[in-house]
Design a protein that fits this description.
366 residues; two-stranded antiparallel ribbon; binds zinc ion
Length: 366
């Protein structure tokens, strides 16, 4: 969300799987279909492409039971279910074509029938877990894939390769592909029709995907006609270059500096506020600031020791501007480079408290 990201070509396998979802739901929601219709052979006939053993494994006893519950819903419920899927699964295309407003349906229409909502949620989540787990996955016919099927780890690796991104797209912290998790931007618990939609899958660090940070928060003004308008989107409307990091003046000298994110275009302030509410960036980066400053103080100490001279303010401010440029050049690759650039630039521009702390190195014994 902080960085521009794109889906890797391997996402084609997920698009094929979303097509399987659509074929299945159309079959289940056909007025002529009921629980008795739904058998393994019936699903194989609907899908045709995937190998029979794959379909058998996907369905299992539990999968067929969930399908039968949907097949037994009444006609109006089936219409709503299919309409919700067809609407929600088009959100990626809509955002890609520049739409800012989009109304997601999710399962809100089924509050009067929680059993049906649960069956639909469980069935669509099944496409993600266990079917997208390591060792499972998807392999669209006729689409090239280096080996086996596209599972979650292969998707994360393809994403990292394709984007040349060394940091978490949400928080700018460390992202090791082998330890990355996949966040559902719109939580699959509420928007299960997006459980496998590529545009809804964002490799992110464990911290961002945790319940304490983004977790299952819903990045929408739920129910508003413009429910997506005041939010960034990880693939189609990123915050990159759309905000600046500012440091509030301390009320007391030893108080940790508070951060503020300000939209460069004032019309986007609500998006920036929502972004911070979703990811707690000012708090997270504020906690990292001390660590970043200590690293620079250590560098200044070494320089003072080697040159055996005092740091003058002009020289220090030039050094800070150089560090800010280095951080800017490391954007997308060096962790917390956004924070680093911001505080070095603020200090280089004359932030009194930052400068005072850095110049205090002069008072230390060499
Ligand atoms: Zn993160």
């Amino acid at each position: 969300m902080l960085h521009r990201i794109q889906l890797p070509p391997e996402a084609a396998h997920l698009r094929w799987a979303v097509d399987l979802q659509e074929r299945l739901l159309r079959g289940l929601c056909d007025p002529a279909t009921n629980a008795g219709t739904v058998t393994l052979a019936w699903v194989q006939g609907l899908w045709n492409d995937p190998p029979k053993p794959w379909v058998k494994k996907f369905c299992g006893r539990k999968g067929l039971a969930l399908m039968r519950k949907i097949a037994d819903a009444n006609a109006a419920e089936k219409d709503s279910l299919l309409a919700a899927f067809l609407n929600d699964s088009k959100c990626g295309q809509a955002f890609a074509s520049g739409a800012v407003r989009f109304r997601l349906h999710g399962l809100a229409a089924f509050s009067a029938n929680p059993a049906l909502a649960k069956s639909a949620r469980d069935l669509f989540e099944r496409f993600y877990k266990p079917q997208f787990d390591a060792g499972a996955g998807y392999s669209a016919p006729g689409v090239k894939l280096a080996k086996g099927q596209l599972d979650r780890p292969a998707f994360v690796s393809a994403f990292a390769r394709h984007n040349d991104l060394g940091v978490c797209p949400y928080c700018d912290g460390t992202l090791t592909p082998s330890r990355a998790e996949v966040d559902h931007f719109y939580p699959k618990s509420e928007y299960p029709f997006l459980a496998l939609l590529p545009e809804n899958l964002v490799p992110a660090c464990k911290g961002c995907n945790s319940i304490q940070v983004k977790g299952v928060q819903v990045p929408l003004e739920v129910g508003a006609t413009n429910e997506t308008a005041d939010w960034f989107h990880p693939y189609h409307r990123t915050a990159d270059g759309d905000f600046r990091v500012e440091f509030l003046p301390p009320r007391m000298n030893d108080e940790p500096r508070q951060l503020r994110l300000t939209a460069i275009d004032p019309n986007h302030q609500a998006r920036v506020k929502n972004l911070n509410g979703l990811l707690s960036l000012t708090e997270y980066w504020g906690n990292r600031l001390r660590h970043r400053m200590q690293a620079k103080i250590a560098a200044l100490r070494t320089r003072r020791r080697n040159q055996k001279g005092r740091l003058d303010e002009t020289g220090l401010r030039e050094q800070l501007q150089d560090w800010a440029k280095e951080a800017a050049a490391g954007r997308r690759h060096l962790e917390f480079s956004i924070l680093e650039e911001a505080w070095c630039r603020a200090a280089g521009d004359g932030d009194a408290q930052f400068l005072e702390e850095l110049l205090a190195v002069n008072n230390e014994p060499c």
